[in-house]
């Protein structure tokens, strides 16, 4: 029994111990791991967390140099500063113990190429290498190589290149490898750093495939044989040979043949040289042959009547046999026969027979004149100004058809109006008079004979009128540059000359005869000259007006305001003195004006003694029975003390004002506010208002 009890007691103690172990656990930090290095960038935000477990849950904080910088698991920097660099410790604490883990912040530094690429020149077929190095923090730099802006590995060069970080090697370079190579270095922070260099590949000359290998020259003609090459560096000399015999070396790529003869035929070869080497021989075959010839000539001029048939044949020979055809007005007739069943007016003109082969192309002209028809079109129409309202029109006559022709000029101004014309004349010129100035005219010439008329094409010409020069250039008080309007002008151009400039320069183009000067632009410039020109496109510009000079001072706007204030004050003082002098004269006749004033107030029925207003007749509910005052003598209402006091006050005020304050201002008030016989009578309140206005004006005058 006792042993069983002891056994149960041990089992319970073990269970209690296991339960206690499950309920209590020391802190353990999972993030950050020990130790941790973090790179940050100055001026940017940064945030990190500390994760820890334990039973009971631990309290987490961050410390730096033994001082708490965060009382929770999150360490936050809104903007990294220089003082934020260093070691931070995450501390997790509970009742069973504590745990620590450190985090070190270092400032990052973007990659910066400290060993830049340099330009290189290599010979075709050799190897070339570039070296690039960048300094960064962290130092794990990734290098990328580019050719003409494209990754090297994506181009044909990548098959012959060897890249190891900042080292780039290119084997067996070709002339096509010439170009820009770029090293781009980055560590993941900031903008990648780049360095660029140019690779120039030298190679011996190479004759271009576009060169011709056969040249054919006509006997007696001149020509050029080309030997165009591709070389780097440039070609220094080209050696020519003919049939194996060396000719004089030429510095250029051309061989000139003058007045070719049969002896110039043969096999030519060229070889180009530069500082690297020479090109292979390039052979060119030159053939000199006689040009085609006309075997059956035809006359250069032919006259034929309208309606008649025409047949002209053209024959030629050559080696190789030439192609024969006719051409008229750039239109080709693929036949050696020029045949027209019935010649008409429009068949008049120039024809060409052409013989063409690989040696040369020769031509022969035929001028065909059609007779017994209306004249051909006049041509070469010219118009020259004769003054400002007339034109001299000249022209070349066409063929007259075998009959006498006369001419007439038709003209019409734009926009289209009535068409005018000159009289028929034998002259090949005419004068057009009384034209509208600044107007464009359409002109054509009519040629006439007994078979009819023919009109020329239309020519256009403007009357050479001259714009008047703007006059009366001035600057007004509002700082506006103004001038007289020119009747025909559509716009005006203003130019200026500053004191420091020797010439005028254009300032602005305006449509109205004025321009507002910008005082801030010209302040302190001193004497500035202005002149104006009239404009009317397309007739050009007038002459410059006579210049005017305007002085722009250094005076500030506050000084101008002060000046206006002083002038205004003097003006006010002058007005006050004038009013006082006038008031003195006015006081001499105050008695007389007082009588007029009383008479004006009272009307025709006012006696010599003052009157008072009768009290308002009031109804039982206090309203007025009528809206006008009734005047009565003092004997009638001697017992009405209230009315008497009221009237005495007003009368005394009016009398005092007449005697002591009668001025120009008061006189103006009487004329404006005091009523006469034909005016509506004022009530007492209105009279009091008038009295107050008079007193206020009197005080303002003083």
From TrEMBL:
The chain crosses the membrane at residues 560-583. Residues 377-472 form the Fibronectin type-III domain. It comes from Steinernema carpocapsae. InterPro entries: FN3_dom, FN3_sf, Ig-like_dom, Ig-like_dom_sf, Ig-like_fold, Ig_sub, Ig_sub2, Neural/epithelial_adhesion. Signal peptide: none annotated. This is Uncharacterized protein. Keywords: Disulfide bond, Immunoglobulin domain, Membrane, Repeat, Signal, Transmembrane, Transmembrane helix. Residues 27-106, 111-195, 205-289, 292-367 form the Ig-like domain.
